[in-house]
């Protein structure tokens, strides 16, 4: 996995803008990082935690 090329930028991000969240998957986990500060590390969630987060967003809880 290449740390610079395997990250996926949100489809809601405006072209040419770096103010979004990027993610990638890695064997049962989802990694998230701030595209403006990729060297500052990332947040790691299990796939179950990621699914719960997405459901909470879709349900308006977040």
TrEMBL record:
Residues 6-58 form the DUF397 domain. InterPro entries: DUF397. It comes from the Bacteria. It holds the Pfam family DUF397. This is DUF397 domain-containing protein.
